[in-house]
Design brief:
The complex is a heterodimer of chains A (about 70) and B (about 200). With about 70 residues, chain A is an alpha+beta fold. Helices cover about 25% and strands about 10% of the residues of chain A. In chain A, strands 1-2 form a two-stranded antiparallel sheet. The longest helix of chain A is centred in the middle third of the chain and has 9 residues. Chain A starts with 18 loop residues before the first strand and ends with a strand. By secondary structure, chain B is mainly α. The mean pLDDT of chain B is about 95. The chains are: A alpha+beta (about 70), B mainly alpha (about 200).
């Protein structure tokens, strides 16, 4: 996991350890889940944590910042 | 013969003077030790909740003075014992500022630590369901992270008990230890360490 993938939320909430992943070309929720959890089938955990910006687990856009629970 | 008698009388008089002087210093030292003991015992209940190290240092100073008294060094015992009430007064004057500082630190920890531990708990929960761990996390590291989280959660309960019991210094010390452990767990899991936990 590269340093750029591991970003704290920062800002006013200095105690937050929320991990954020910025969607890159070729990313899918499956691949992201595989990267952070080792198991792509857990992709729904990421989808559920980002329901405010995602309507469909198969539709993610480059540049979107996803919370990794 | 007359000279010898005169010398003896003189010697006895000198010895008497020395003994009287010694006995006077002994009495003063005894009184000073009692006074020091009294001020320490009066300050202790509040001080040990906020500045336990300082009250322990003063108790050690009192023990040292008593030891000197026991060895017959009344002058040193007197001087050491007489210095104690002033030091107790200084400590009491600094307690309010110390209490405010500890209260602020505790408030920060109380707001931040549960949030940090909740993030860790959530990640550990998800990773426990994973069929395979991520590339940067070995099984051993994951087990270490899980037990680190369990310990931190248990210790947080004892820290809150200390706070409820008014033991501010103890609560803050425990909170800081938990913070360090939680940071280690976050690093094991490859999660970001919050800015507030880095200090």
């Amino acid at each position: 996991m590269s340093e750029e993938d591991v970003k704290g939320k920062g800002g006013s909430d200095s105690w937050s350890s929320e991990q954020v992943h910025e969607v890159k070309k070729g990313d899918t929720l499956w691949k992201i889940a595989e990267r952070y959890y080792g198991d792509g089938s857990l992709y729904m955990k990421i989808f559920e944590a980002n329901r405010n910006i995602l309507k469909d687990p198969n539709l993610i856009k480059v540049g979107q910042k996803l919370k990794i629970p | 013969m007359r000279k010898i008698v005169l010398l003896s009388v003189l010697m006895i008089a000198i010895a008497g003077l020395i003994l009287t002087g010694c006995s006077k210093v002994k009495g003063q030292a005894e009184a000073a030790l009692k006074a020091a003991e009294k001020v320490i015992s009066e300050a202790k209940p509040e001080a040990e909740k906020i500045a336990p190290d300082q009250i322990k240092a003063l108790e050690a100073a009192l023990s040292g003075a008593k030891e000197k008294f026991g060895k017959g060094d009344y002058k040193a015992a007197l001087s050491d014992a007489q210095a104690i009430p002033g030091k107790v007064k200084e400590m009491l004057a600094s307690l309010k500022a110390k209490k405010d500082e500890l209260t602020k630190t505790w408030t920060d920890l109380d707001q931040g630590l549960p949030k940090m531990m909740e993030s860790i708990k959530s990640r550990v929960g998800i990773l426990s369901q994973s069929k395979k761990l991520p590339a940067n996390l070995t099984k051993e590291k994951f087990e270490e992270a899980k037990s680190g989280l369990d310990n931190a959660l248990k210790e947080w309960e004892t820290a809150k008990e200390s706070f409820k019991g008014g033991k501010l210094a103890e609560a803050v010390a425990k909170g800081n230890t938990i913070k360090e452990k939680a940071v280690q767990v976050l690093q094991l899991l490859g999660m970001p360490v919050p800015a507030a936990a880095k200090s």
